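Facilitated trehalose transporter Tret1: structure tokens wanted.
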Amino acid sequence: MEEIHRDVKKLRSASATSSTSSVTEYVNEVFTESELELSRGVSIHVTEDTQYVKNPLSNILYDEKETKEKKNLDNVVDFMHDSEEFESTDNSILTGVKNIRKMYITALVVLMFAICMGITATYSATATMDMKKPHSSIHPDSDQVTWIGSLMAVGALIGGTAGGYFTNSLGRKGALVLNTVPFVVGWMFVAYASSTGMIYLGRVVTGFCCGIISVATPMYLVEIATPDVRGLLGASFQLFVVIGVLIVSFLGSQLTWRYLAVSGGVASLVAAFLMIPMPESPKWLMAQKRRGEAKNAIIFLQGKSHDAEDECLKMEEEIQSQPKGSVQFQEFKAPTIYKPFILSIMLMFFQQFSGVNAVLFYTAEIFKSAHSSLDPIEATIYVSIVQVIATLISSLLMDKAGRKALLLFSGACMAISLIIFGAFDLARTQNPSIVDNYGWVPLVCLMSFIAAFSLGFGPTPWLMVAEMTPVRFRGIVSGIATALNWTFVFIITKSFKAEEEAMHGYGVYWMYSAFCIASLFITYFFLPETKGKNVDEILEFFEPKKLEKS
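Answer:
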């Protein structure tokens, strides 16, 4: 390899002179007679005005008068120079793997907060069952149980609204780390509660913290990720929330409700300590005019081989293109602002009005009321496992299939599953004996529904809200969308029982299926595909279309 490098240097030196004979001599010296015969040689033909260098790979015509300014024998030099590039390939691959590894490690650390959110969201389902046992010092009635579950959504509504402010003022990382203080306090209220009132307070506080997590975490993931893996990392938020759900289900079978609350506080502390050495979002740092820190963050995440300065320039241009000062209401009149804002709300609306949280919160009761042959608790475990697997698949497909394709598939499959489940429920009320032969239908329908939700409408809305919104408005839009999402959660979970009594089970399922069908229309006609695009490219979709002159 060293000999090739030496040959390249000598050939460059020879070709830089005006002496054709020196080049000819060196070519004959470097290439053996057999090599020249094999390649049909490198022949140099000299005319009065021009020189032609012919090679099996290419022909180069150059002016003898400009020999010193132009590259001579480019085809020969490039052919030999390929060996230099080949030699460095292994090192480049290893460097790239090392660099990308840091970005994934950072993403895994911040996703610990998503696990904490999953633990908090489903804590009540397991804890309230344990509270009904004789050893518990608190025995809530059925109405208090519903409030223990739903007050978390009330707290998350407040936290989601405040999340935009905190992520903009403290930074994405700063908001998550400082959020741990009230998170732990809230869990301690629950763990050491002497009355249901203290549990209510703890649930509101931990819900508030979940609201901030649901704003800051997807935002951070989108802003540290390169475009080629942005979908994977963004979709991982929902995956880790579901992992948290699965964790609390298993822990709940081993721990009392008080120790389960302590484990929630410990999980949040672990996430915060791991997050401290991680970098702040480069985009937020650039928005705060902390260029040096932003550059260091990019180098940490993507490695020294990545052009951090060029990345900073791109961010700077994006930020400078946005109006200065605090966000004003009239700025939302711009199509590039109000359109993604409305679509963000629509995505959150369809995510919740698919009925997913009603299904998840009342899975055991749904199976019980459907008189399925499967044990309700066992069915709940199966549904949770399916949710984890489907969300993992979604994370892997997000940057391949695209956001719109997954949303369309998700909405269609959810609608079909709910329609069939509703038909089964109606048939069961008319002919109860149908359960004897078709008791497996509820399980298949609910597993299909959860799998479809987890593939599309589970992770994608969180990702697309951050992707579609300009950096300047991202905190506000994400905060409002998240707050509305939790509002929808509260409405769905509190109204399900009343709706079931008024419309019967099949009526409720068909109503949810209608919302799923409506989501297909909105997704297909109004939603942009954001896969592999930067913010400017995405915002072009929302620009008013100019009519072409005929």
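The chain has 24 helices and three strands. The radius of gyration is 31 Å.

Cheers.
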